[in-house]
Amino acid sequence: MKSKASARVNALIGREQEIAKIRSCLRAGKNVLLEGPVGVGKTFLAIESIRELGRPSFRVDGDNRYSEQKLTGWFDPPLAIKKGFHKDAFIPGPLVEAMKAGGVLFINELNRLPEGVQNVLLPAIDERIVSVPRLGEITAKPGFLVIATQNPKEFVATSHLSEAILDRFELIVLNYQSEKDEQGIVTGAVVRSKMSFKPGIQQKLVEAAVSLIRLTRSHPRVRRGASIRAALSVADIAAVLMQDGLVFESAFLSAALMALPTRIEIEREADAENTMHEELEELVHEWVAVVLKKKT
Ligand SMILES: Nc1ncnc2c1ncn2[C@@H]1O[C@H](COP(=O)(O)OP(=O)(O)O)[C@@H](O)[C@H]1O
Ligand SMILES: [Mg+2]
């Protein structure tokens, strides 16, 4: 287990309480829904928990064109012509595979699935049965569970889950991690990138990148602040720029100007004359100045 953990791309930092909660739910045979803003670590934590559980798992990535057939399975046309609508011609989808294996169905971004597809899950979860047209009913082996993630409903491009679906899940809410944990995540990524730094610069970069994203979250004009992904990008890009000869401050500012604007959403000023992009750039300059003054 230890050697496996160290060979992983990303080691889990913190989240002890959340992992403990997920573990209890899964041991109690309950389905888990992880909810939190973009980049808070939902997908990562779900995958970690499934890995820990050590059971077969099957993944669905929710999007609004996902179909019921894709979830349950479909008949391969050439095989169906040869064999008829027989189970040998049936290509199981992730739901049927997870049910047959008594495994875990991981639905990433559940609320992006069309409602009709979400509804297929109800009998699968309640009666542990799914019925496939022309094939019949498939019953889940013991151990079948669902772990899902979703963004809170105020995020764009997400729909609200029905009460019926919500009633089948235990909710675990994820918030942004502590400054120390966020620094740990960025340090891990920087170390894995195998970039070389002058003495003290690696730590300075990690601290500045994390301070920067945390500043964006508390700014009055920001509707949606930056997640850890933005800090990871700032650190990675700044490291490359420093390798190319830029001094720390210039590298950090350039990286921030590339990494932040796509990841934050601001409230426009009522009488705004600047474009959205100019406003964002101005804010990034402001934040970088604050962070660098604090750090040097
Ligand atoms: N606790 C953590 N420990 C280590 N890395 C993490 C942790 N939480 C998030 N990350 C990293 O942060 C990034 C964003 O996480 P992700 O799970 O994709 O977010 P979400 O699904 O909530 O949008 C990923 O690169 C992930 O590896
Ligand atoms: Mg995700």
What does this structure look like?
By secondary structure, this protein is an alpha/beta fold. It has two domains: 2-173, P-loop containing nucleotide triphosphate hydrolases (Rossmann fold); 179-295, Helicase, Ruva Protein, domain 3 (Orthogonal Bundle). It has helices at 2-7, 16-27, 42-53, 68-72, 77-83, 94-101, 115-126, 163-166, 179-192, 201-218, 228-243, 248-259, 276-295, and strands spanning 32-35, 57-61, 73-75, 90-92, 104-108, 129-132, 136-139, 145-150, 170-173, 222-224, 265-266. Strand 6 (129-132) and strand 7 form a beta hairpin. Helix 10 (201-218) packs antiparallel against helix 11 (228-243), helix 11 packs across helix 12 (248-259) and helix 12 runs antiparallel to helix 13. The two termini are 41 Å apart. Bound molecules: adenosine-5'-diphosphate and magnesium ion.
Structure summarized in a few sentences:
It is built from 13 helices and eleven strands.
- Second CATH tier, the architecture of the largest domain: 3-Layer(aba) Sandwich
- Average residue-wise pLDDT: 91
SSE series: HHEHEHEHEHEHEEEHEHHEHHEH
For the largest sheet, list the strands in their spatial order: 2-5-8-1-9
Structural domain count: 2
Task: Supply Rg.
Answer: 23 Å
Q: Which percent range describes the beta-strand content?
A: 5-15%
Shape: elongated
Spans of at least 5 consecutive residues whose pLDDT stays below 50 are: 1-7
**Helix residue percentage:** 40-55%
* Tally of contiguous helical segments: 13
* Largest β sheet strand count, sense and barrel closure: 5 strands, parallel
Question: Could you name the CATH homologous superfamily of the largest domain?
Answer: P-loop containing nucleotide triphosphate hydrolases
CATH topology of the largest domain: Rossmann fold
Q: Which ligands occur here?
A: adenosine-5'-diphosphate, magnesium ion
Question: In terms of structural class, how would the helical and strand content be classed?
Answer: alpha/beta
- Taking the alpha carbons of the first and last residues, their distance comes to 41 Å
